[in-house]
């Protein structure tokens, strides 16, 4: 597992998301990267069903279930307390069981409607780097752009941060000045797949907040 | 006794029974019994089991006769009261005496024999016979008791004798003994009345569709009926299914074919005259041979299946019982399944052409298939035990540890049997080529010695060799060596030179030869360099690849310039691969300079003039170039 | 094709596998005989039987009183400590007379070691736990385990254990993708070979639970 940095690329006024994505793609291709397919990271949120009032957890518990096409055999789930679980893909079946109510009875957990978020896009490989440019959408509404850069050979962020920054700044500019908060917090420790997922989740949450905040303005 | 004076008339009882009364009142009486009949009747009443029965019997009969006499003599006056008694006794004694004599005579069987008398059932038997019979009956009961006891003992002795003989080599128990031996080596099962065995590799992990079941029967042929000169007789016969009869092996051959033949020509070879096992070979041999046939069949069918399904750059051709593929452009690998049923005629079997077996690769094939079997059976046990069974531990942990797509792909890749054997064949070809090239060069190039040290640790896919080039007599100093490390893989050879440069060579032999020749030419120059240091000569210039002079066919020439310690002699050596080794010497001539200038000019300027002259190395004494050069350097060094 | 089936099942939330199960028990004193016989009957007769040492925790989530609580079984190995395994089993169809064995749908999930914290935070509570030690055999795809169960005197302490009973639990199980029928027959035939040492039969768990409560 390498070191992964995920950044939200801002969409300047007047430009559509698609245009920004295209320009980024062109820059990456100019660097010499080779397109090797597409990637997708998706997230669904479930909420504890306390209508029946008997689930003893307070406050309401949220489960985020994420999948990453880079790790096709795994299914990630993160709670709002921060506990991360990495499991086989069959974990989805278990979640389904948690959330499906039998006839007449309520389920333990309920899916939050309309809050499925996805980041999809092309995947490039540039020798030891893997660059992914994803457009984020929530229920098919475009929300923003997330760029992920992975450096596979190294697992400790301190060792390779400078190298990564150089590459990222060459096509992303000043967005990649500092490492993402999660990575900053564990610069000297081993980087784990769960950290990538947490970075994504953080961005998704931000995007969701933006929507909520943005609504009153409109 | 009747009282005197009283006349009592005793009348005999009408002793004769009245048989019949005729119609006219006449009485017909039963005739009275004769004496012998009377005696016989009396004797019948006697119980001879009692000891004094005889006496009693006699007295009884005597009494009876006496009574009879008495009655008959009632009418006669008695002379003496005991007279009649005496008469009677005498008569009886006489008769007994006569009987005793008769018996004694009859016992001797010389004059008289007791013969059985045919009688009516109601007729009383003769006394003699009855007596004899009674005696015999007693004896008989004793003897019958003895005989039953004897027969029991005889029976037991017979059985013991039989079992002792059976332990040797007799028919019935030998069968079971052999069956016991058979069972220790093979799996047997009793189905109904017959015994079926399994000689396939199913229990060892094979998933081949064809099973091998054999039947065990008793051998009904007696040892005496066997043909002379054959093996020892066994009580067991095994019947092998017809498709596994005969013997077979898989032949692997690597041969050079010319480019033009390609893969289109494949002749069907059906060798017939090998491994013909006699029909009455020992059952263990038969079963092993049949098992081998099954194994070879499975191996070949797996290879053929892979050959047709595998998509590779070089096509594989499967024709009948042969698989061909080109592993290198002009090298062909052929795998042939040879199965001889041994049913062919004895006469019409021509000698098959000599085939080059590659035993190493054949053995490798067998090992590879066995490994496949092993993997089927030996699955990773799941920890904890409720985890999914059938996956390797790594695959099971793939989910929880977040393995990336590349890792998963790497894990799921596995090589087929055919690919593996092709790789091994390739490596073998490369290795053999390398060996022959090095050996050829070592024998053709006399001057520096080429030595090859092969690593004793190698695998079927990789070998290492270290080539050392030295000059004879100058190899004590490590500096004078030139060395190369070769790593022979399946497709290419990786070369690491002494200065740690890495070169990749392809499978062509010429490339390796060129490389070694170039190293040899480099060796001369580096040797000169080291010699110069030792001798005190100065090195003016060393050029590893000189761009001047005639061009070599491949690689470059190298050259070196040396100056003698007192600066008056200069050596220039150029070594090229195709141009050879040339040594030039410059001796400056003092004559060309004006003698008057010698006082003003530093002697070193005198070195500028002079021409190089080539030295004919053939004429110099010395075993090799190094010795010659040393000689030159020593001779040439002169004080001014 | 198998992956497609799996994906479909996963998306639909249907458990893709079925477990066929037969259980029995044997007294401790005869356990060695059974192990010896199993060694001969199962694959890999030439190597030593695999020993395992697992710790199992049962969590359940209770909703409203009318709801059936949801139970999951978490098991991890004390020999290879990086393997955690979560299991969810469906209800068993017991009444089916044609089935020789107990059949139930099951979901087997490998998880990372943060699972305990995760479950606790979701709302699952630890109902009970135990330690199982024993031997593992396999024949083809059939799993046979002979396990001795221990109760833990102190919650969470795996070393302070006492045996629960004087006998061992013997289980014969196969996990196959949905739709294969021949499995029950094979299992029954195998179970026949272990008689009279141990009678493997399908056990009605519900009846036992009712009897216990």
Explain what you see.
The complex is a heterotrimer of chains A (218), B (640) and C (213). Chain A is built from five helices and nine strands; from the N terminus they run E-H-E-E-E-E-H-E-E-E-E-H-H-H. Chain A is α+β, with helices and mostly antiparallel strands and 218 residues long. Chain A folds into two domains: 3-39 and 116-217, TATA-Binding Protein; 41-111, no CATH class. Among the domains of chain B are: 176-344 and 360-377, no CATH class; 421-521; 527-636, no CATH class. Chain B has helices spanning 35-45, 53-72, 83-108, 127-169, 171-185, 283-309, 359-377, 393-396, 405-412, 417-444, 509-535, 625-636; strands at residues 18-21, 27-29, 187-191, 194-198, 213-218, 236-239, 247-256, 316-319, 322-328, 331-340, 448-454, 463-471, 482-488, 493-497, 502-505, 538-546, 557-563, 569-576, 580-587, 612-614. Residues 53-59, 225-231 and 344-351 of chain B have low confidence and may be disordered. With 213 residues, chain C is α+β, with helices and mostly antiparallel strands. Chain C has helices at 2-12, 31-41, 115-122, 183-194, 205-212, and strands at 17-27, 50-61, 70-77, 84-89, 102-111, 125-139, 142-152, 161-163, 167-177. Chain C has an eight-stranded antiparallel β-barrel with strand order 1-5-4-3-2-6-7-9. The interface between A and C is medium-sized, with 34 and 34 residues.
| Low confidence ranges of chain C | none
| Secondary structure category of chain A | alpha+beta
Beta-strand content bin of chain C: 35-45%
Task: Report strand % of chain A.
Answer: 25-35%
State the CATH topology of the largest domain in chain A. TATA-Binding Protein
Low-confidence stretches of chain A: none
CATH architecture of chain C: Beta Barrel
Number of helices of chain C: 5
Q: CATH superfamily assignment of chain C?
A: Hypothetical Protein Pfu-838710-001
Total domain units of chain A:
2
Distance between the termini of chain C: 46 Å
Q: What is the CATH topology classification name of chain C?
A: Hypothetical Protein Pfu-838710-001
